[in-house]
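assembly run, all chains below
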Amino acid sequence: MRTRKRTGWRRIVNGVNIAGLISVLFIALPLYWMTIGSFETPANLASSPPQWFPVPGTTANYSTAFSQYHFWIFFRNSLIVTIIATALVLALGTLAGYALGRTPMRGKFSLLVVLLMISVFPEIAIIAPLYLLMREIGWLNSYQALILPYTAFNLPFAIWILRNYFLGIPKEMEETGRIDGAGPLRTMWSIVLPQALPGLFTAGIFCFTACWTEFLMALTFNAQTNFQTIPVGIATFGTQDITPFPTIFAASVVAVIPIGILVFIFRKFVISGLTSGAVKG
Amino acid sequence: MATVSLEQVNKVYPNGFHAVHDLSLDIADGEFMVLVGPSGCGKTTALRMVAGLEDISSGTLKIGTRTVNDVTPKDRDIAMVFQNYALYPHMTVAENIGFALKLRKMPKTDIEARVKETAEILGLTEWLNRKPGQLSGGQRQRVAMGRAIVREPSVFLMDEPLSNLDAKLRVQMRAEVSRIQRRINVSTIYVTHDQIEAMTMGDRVAVMRAGLLQQCDNPQVLYDHPDNLFVAAFIGSPAMNLYEASVTEGAAAVRVGSQQIDLPASVTTAHSGLAAFAGKRIVLGLRPEHLPASGDARPGPTLTGDVDLVEALGSELMVHFTIDAKRVQAEGAHDPDAEDVAAAGEGVARVDPRAPVKAGERFTFAIDADGMQFFDPETGLAIW
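ok done. output:
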């Protein structure tokens, strides 16, 4: 095989790097457009050719979103629903994943396949029966109307991630724990969970993002402003005549921030979580 | 400190696999007992039953005077070192060592003192604040030992603790584990598939095969007087040369291929059972060192073979040779990790480095007659 050592500028400018750059631009450009748009006046945003920098900039869109459009209510609702659902998913997913990964169980494999099928099940297929159910039990316009389905929908994937994580922890660690005198809960808490943290973060961030951005159920089950979440709230900005794009952009920027912070803090864990199980360490 | 006794212990898995058959062993106070055998022989299962990590299907297990069949692992007063060390990666060395004490709710200052003392025994003092990931293989191994020592258990259980180390470190740690065990003088059951480890470390060695105990004795007895073909073939490196042979009428000689080896009176007296095999087939066993050097000048029995290969080790020559008799393999005795010294020829002799042996020539080896072993080919049992 002929190999050529790249030198000078050829080392930096090569096919792979350019492809990478194009991909990043492709993903980052809408975010950039949204961010600068949130600082523009409506007139400037619509100008042609488009402005690449908001001159003159304004923060009025942000205050409008919060004061005029009750954005803080949507934000609060999203936080409540997402945090509780994520916590439930992690708690249940840890227990189920551990059981499926470690304990001898009849029909374990079929159960895992069913879980995988559920996790790819299209939401829209069951939204109507779910709506009727929620109406029947009087849960429409409530937090639990979202928390419960979000937990159910995100649990299978979390169980899969966590189960694979638990499988990767040598059994001998738990056995050492047993000999050392740790009971099952202590073993779980002090020995297993600390090692499964990357898996917990990965599952947690996937679940958080899925709940934070979910639209269909939020729109269907909670029509009252008091229980609407961010995606639905932003969609109701504006009227028939005007769509306040800069304000929508501003709200969207605020909506993206929590996810950005989470991913930034836990990025190492998430990356190791996504690749774990691929190679038996 | 305590004795451990296994009486007719069996392990049958739910799928019907009988992993350990009627195992009876007594481990004395402070004794270093090694369980050795090829993989799948039940040695690890036996150890795990002592630890309480596997249920005992039938039989009695006693630690000290107490029957512990149904006692949980933590209440058996044992400590175990695993093959992969099983260190907690999120805890420092000190936390790893002190974890069991913390579970016992020992005061913090006492834990610190005990951990420090243990670290000193093991030479780990300067690594106490490191995480296991920052340690070398040998250091991790020592932490695993430390975690066991710190609890001051009555019994130590070790499951192939050295097999993850490279060859050089393994030899070093072998000595260190023995030294520590003698220093703290705790009854120890040590599982390994490596017969050299077993021979060098054990006060006594129990050889297992397919769930059955073959022989349990001190290493020298195992080596000199193996009870059966399996033990003969498994213990010793290079392995014992085993050939199909037959006993002549009158049991005064054995025929190996086309050669006749006259048996001195000392041998026929020591192996009086040979008389019953007169005219019958047997298996003849000769350890490499019992074929010492040129037999031309020496009186007594000899064996002549075609030399295939001569390996000079400095202190001795390993001579690989072929004779016209069929070599016997004891099933399962072959250690896949060991160097296959017999591959070059059908037999191996350990010869004085000055002996005039050349590859491609015929050579006559003296036979150290007292080292000859005889086995019944039907039962595999030694003939005495």
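Confidence is low (pLDDT under 50) at residues 337-344 of chain B.

Chain B touches chain A through 22 residues (CB under 8 Å).

not gonna interpret more than that til we talk
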